[in-house]
Amino acid sequence: MKRQNARTLALIVSILTYLVVGAAVFETLESKQEKTHKRRLDARKYELMRKFNLTKANFEELELVVLQLKPHKAGVQWKFAGSFYFAITVITTIGYGHAAPSTDSGKMFCMFYALLGIPLTLVMFQSLGERINTFVRYLLHQAKKCLGMRQTEVSMANMVTVGFFSCLSTLCVGGAAFSHCEGWSFLHAFYYCFITLTTIGFGDYVALQRDDALQNDPRYVAFCFVYILMGLTVIGAFLNLVVLRFLTMNTEDERRDAKQKALMTVGKPRGEVARLLPLSTSTSSTVVANNATKAKDLKGAYTEVLHFQTICSCLWYRSKEKLQGSIPTMIPQEMTFSDAYLQQNSNCPHYMDPGST
Amino acid sequence: MKAQNVRTLFLVLSVVFYLLLGAAVFDALETESESSRKEALEHKLGELKRKYGFLEEDYREVERVILQSEPHRGGRQWKFSGSFYFAITVVTTIGYGHVVPLTDAGKTFCMFYAVLGIPLTLIMFQSLGERINTLVRYLLRRAKRGLGLRETEVSLGNMVLVGLLSCVGTLCVGAAAFSHFEDWTFFNAYYYCFVTLTTIGFGDLVALKKTDALQRRPPYVAFCFVYILVGLTVTGAFLNLVVLRFLTVSSDARTAEREDEQLLTEEDESDAADGGRSRLTLPVEEGGSCVSLVSFPSDDLRLIGPERSKPPKPNRLGDLICCWCRGLGVCGSSSDLQREHTGGHSNPVFYTSVSYRVDRVSRAASPHASPSAVALCWERNYRHSRRSSF
């Protein structure tokens, strides 16, 4: 079986196993508690119903009102600050649900908003994360140099360690801050930060819901927004470092397979192609004409694979158009391409290959 | 400023602006409705309080009981099927919150569970998505051939169209199903499917919450789970096709060195084998080559026959993206390239700047000189800058 298929199958099986195992553990941890909790609540409910002489219908009516009032209890949710909070939960896919659009037009706009916002945010966090990783690598390198270490290169393990500790400290800082500002225990505040920064966003704990904080405490509001966005950046940088490379494994393998397939069938390169590549000054003139048609077919298949894995292939086409449209950026015609190229190559002697023999 | 920094700054500013825009619109759409609803509900509550003679503490008590009983209304939530549902919402990061672990042990396990589960799930969905895209590409090509079309190559536009239609189709199927089973309007069911498959997961609408469905209707439960996982696969495949290429991977300096050695030795070997023609292999090691996300059309070179007169059809979608890249003015000048370090080489912008530079060196004569020049110039700069780093 092809490597990509085996890998995909293995991943599917692992996920399903992981879900089953998780379900079993959660059941063990929570099911009994759930039963006792429910029993207690039901008992209390009947007590209250007896005390206030409520029928079942009365109580259900009361239930409905109380449940609908729940989001309003936390204050105005849709003024600008609250809407900004909501917009954050949408495009970062956290989605607490503490406030959710109730009007149809709100829901409609929410969907379109998410459609553009989520990829934009994904790309932004990964871009920023990659910049941060580069910067951290630079700092680490300088630090290693300063400490006078022998090995001044920054290894992957170094970066992963730094990334991991940044994530952990971000969570701890958030845990401390929110446990103070929201009155939660440290574990619950840490749990809140974790659930938020992994974008799960249950909504069991939500910041800015106490004492109308969204309207009354702009500094705390700003802190929350900044914390969420910066925390997501730190996590995003760590994911960029560790996980992103695995997301393209199959694509790379496909490309490699296509390349190998093409190379094996096309055979040795023709002299024409060799001439195009100035590195090889070999004048082998074995023009394999009969391979041309085969090459065309395979080229079709091969370029197909590459076509839409090449982000800026148009650049080649556009620069080709430019060339034909006589943009005055060309080198003088008397210089051959090889000469011009070799001139440029003066500072890369190791790369220059003046011919095999 | 370096191209990647400009690009990143631009992205950050776009997101901030997008948030401000969204906040303003949501404010306009929802505030009035919110305040009128709140008034009505508080009025009703006041009536009921008076009717039943609740004091403030009484009401607090009733409220507490009602709010805490809410998750139990749908039946047992933590039996196996409910826990499985919860586990799905955790690893896919949907996170409805319709049930949450109440015990501290449950919360702690949830965190550890997520730490391993979320990356694993991400990788799985992307892996499966890529397989699906490959299959679709193959099927489309056969279909094009079968229909006797002249151009049998499957373009990115074709794939994006098919992906888009699959996503919309998945949402509609889900909307129809859930509007039937959960007794929601089609619009609400569609909204639910959208919010679920984008993993936002508000929790305002949640399937399987009604009347003990988790225990009483196993086929419907199975359908829900399968729908969520398949739907996320379809969405993941579309993201794999469209968004993944824009995510730049951090490179690793040591891996860069290794790849350099490899390139050199490969070149030497192939030089000997092919009689002097060196191979322009892109390092695609799994150690984290940052070029892996973007391949260069230089690979086309070897297969370009001398008699080929027509270039491959330009990729219009790519044109748009490239023109966007260029229009930003982030194409570096040649001096920028010297300063370019290893980080973020897979930026399309980086290649933009390389090809921009190459325009200045390539000849007008051969149309093929351009890609080879581009490739070689890239190779040279890539290696040069790799050497100059750390």
Automatic annotation (TrEMBL), chain A:
The keyword Glycosyltransferase does not apply. GO terms for molecular function: open rectifier potassium channel activity; outward rectifier potassium channel activity; potassium ion leak channel activity. It is a multi-pass membrane protein. One of its GO terms (cellular component) is plasma membrane. It is found in: Membrane. Keywords: Ion channel, Ion transport, Membrane, Potassium, Potassium channel, Potassium transport, Transmembrane, Transmembrane helix, Transport. The keyword Transmembrane helix applies. Residues 77-132, 168-243 form the Potassium channel domain. Signal peptide: none annotated. Belongs to the two pore domain potassium channel (TC 1.A.1.8) family. This is Potassium channel domain-containing protein. It comes from Gambusia affinis (Western mosquitofish).
